[in-house]
Amino acid sequence: MTEQADEAAPRPGLRERKKAQTRDAIRTAALDLFEEQGFEATTVDRICARANVAHRTFFRYYECKEALLFGWGFGRLLVEEFAAAPAELDPWAALTHAFDRYGGGVPEEAAGTTARRRELRRRCAHIRSVHEFAILRIDALARDAVGIAAARMGVDPDRDLRPAAIGALLAGLARRVVVDGVTDGPQAWVTALREVVGTRGDGP
């Protein structure tokens, strides 16, 4: 988002601020414990005790401890920007628009927290549950992208492969970031995407 857009945005209400504080407390407690004693030795029980929250509260914000390595709403912002892109844009232009708008992180998360998560994720990449969680979330991101692309194009994704191509592209980018640990920012992806789109053929 631009600075102007941020300034114009209304401040969150008390309920939203409390939810953000709870989410931050859980996230901070988890990251601290992962660093102190290791991911596998850290249980949800210990995270809840450190954050002073109940189990049911933890699971309102995170489906499992693996989710804490990927941030809240992993991929959600990019998909939302893709869906909200101006209707007159073709799917590739809409995708570029989404990357332009997407900041590459979670708005309520400090840059230092994002860096900690990435480093911990790198250290935990060999853990099966972490890898499987990443693949499941990437697959979900791709499915969402296929549905949005199909709706924008007015086609049946079971008969037209173009939406699946867009979903595969996003899945590949997400895998590069969250599985392979590539740290290129969203603008690098925008540049690459524009170059690829600029060389695509004019076939049907």
Would you write up a description of this structure?
The chain is mainly α. The chain has two domains: 14-65, Arc Repressor Mutant, subunit A (Orthogonal Bundle), CATH 1.10.10; 70-197, Orthogonal Bundle (Tetracycline Repressor, domain 2). Helices cover 66% and strands 0% of the residues. The protein has ten helices and no strands. Helix 5 runs parallel beside helix 8 (128-153). The protein is globular and about 50 Å long. The two termini are 34 Å apart. The relative contact order is 0.11. The model is unreliable at 1-9 (pLDDT under 50).
CATH topology name of the largest domain: Tetracycline Repressor, domain 2
Mean pLDDT: 84
Q: Supply the CATH class of the largest domain.
A: Mainly Alpha
Give the biggest beta sheet. none
End-to-end Cα distance: 34 Å
**Percent helix range:** 55-70%
- Please give the number of β-strands: 0
Judged by helices, strands and strand pairing, the structural class is mainly alpha
Principal-axes shape call: globular
> Would you identify the CATH architecture of the largest domain?
Orthogonal Bundle
Organism: Embleya scabrispora
Keywords: DNA-binding, Transcription, Transcription regulation
Region (Disordered): 1-21
DNA-binding region: 43-62
Question: What secondary-structure arrangement, pairings included, does this model have?
Answer:
Layout: H1 3-8, H2 14-37, H3 44-51, H4 55-61, H5 76-84, H6 91-101, H7 111-123, H8 128-153, H9 162-178, H10 186-199
